[in-house]
Design a protein that fits this description.
Layout: E1 4-10, E2 13-19, H1 24-45, H2 50-92
Antiparallel strand pairs: 1-2
Length: about 90
């Protein structure tokens, strides 16, 4: 499939991109989320500098990503423990 040419506006600046058709919605949603976070931080902290706002959005996104990774690691450990317990129960029956 051919890539789509789209423009995403972030912090009042347009960024041209070529994306796979199946990725377009996700990319547009990500751009919208970035702009919403910018507005939130701007109103919350009274910051007008776009570079500072973008840095805060990037930092916030990485914190959320690390949180999600941590929970998936914890889920994996939990699954391993449950499998071990299940094995022990199966052996004892």
């Amino acid at each position: 499939m051919d890539k789509l040419s789209i423009k995403i506006k972030i912090a009042d600046r347009e960024y041209p991109m070529k994306v796979e058709p199946e990725e377009e919605e996700r990319i547009r949603r990500a751009g919208k989320m970035v702009n919403e976070k910018i507005k939130l931080f701007k109103s919350q902290f009274g910051i007008d500098d776009k570079q500072d706002l973008l840095a805060m959005v990037a930092f916030d996104a990485l914190v959320e990503k690390l949180k999600a990774e941590g929970s998936s690691v914890n889920d994996m450990h939990l699954k391993e423990k449950l499998a071990g317990l299940n094995h022990l129960l199966s052996q004892s029956l």
